[in-house]
Design brief:
2 domains; about 220 residues; SH2_dom_sf; PH_domain; PH-domain like; SHC Adaptor Protein; alpha+beta
Length: about 220
């Protein structure tokens, strides 16, 4: 059994695809993190995934469903904490609704976690001179992916969801309610545009079929 102190290996493909389906967000970074909330005394170890601007915490590396999640879009700062006697790297995430203390296994791992988090929240690679060239390259790759994801989300959100347009004469054309977005992005689009429709057709999790996201109005 893999221990938190060892070099983390990717989750099996089946688990990866199931988490992708549940979260609807791209995976940027993953590994073990010890987490402590501001009002708690003890750290708790989670298998953690950075997807989009969200952190998903899993009780076990093989769990398909996350036990907690954290929206990083409201992040105001990430501050280092002096390393402990074991050499662990700690930093505190300050958010508009509180704070969360994270501890990585070692200094290099801590730099990566903090670097990737700042990359997706600030949309720029942090100017940390201690980052290695390979780490910087991966962060620049994530930066481009996150910029592209947000651009697609913004374009889809601003586009009309009106489904009254005449159908295309081409039999292979997709309906006007189709958008190439994830499940989470489809939910956000419908929430931001309630007067423009309540249904989005999108690619399925297997990339071969289609899925439907519907917004229900509760009276």
């Amino acid at each position: 059994k893999e221990q938190p102190g060892e070099t983390p290996q990717p989750a099996p493909r089946r688990i990866f695809h199931e988490r992708q389906r549940i979260t609807g967000l791209p995976l940027y970074f993953q590994g073990y993190l010890s987490v402590r909330h501001s009002r708690c005394q003890e750290f708790r170890v989670y298998w953690t995934e950075l997807r989009g601007t969200m952190l998903f915490f899993y009780d076990d590396k093989k769990a398909t469903t996350y036990s907690q999640k954290l929206d990083l879009s409201a992040l105001t700062s990430a501050t280092n904490v002096y390393p402990d006697e074991n050499g662990s790297a700690q930093f505190i995430l300050m958010l508009s609704n509180g704070e969360l203390e994270l501890k990585a296994n070692d200094h290099e791992c801590g730099k990566e976690w903090k670097g990737f988090i700042l990359t997706v929240t600030e949309l720029s690679v942090p100017p940390d001179q201690s980052l290695l060239p390979e780490q910087l390259r991966r962060m620049h790759e994530v930066l481009e992916k996150e910029k592209e994801r947000r651009m697609m989300l913004n374009n889809c959100s601003s586009a009309s969801l009106n489904r009254k347009s005449p159908p295309s004469s081409t039999s292979t054309a997709l309906p006007v309610c189709f958008y190439a977005v994830s499940r989470q992005e489809a939910i956000e689009m419908l929430e931001k545009n309630p007067s423009c429709g309540n249904l989005i057709l999108r690619p399925g999790s297997d990339s071969k079929n289609y899925a439907i996201t519907i917004r229900y109005r509760l009276d």
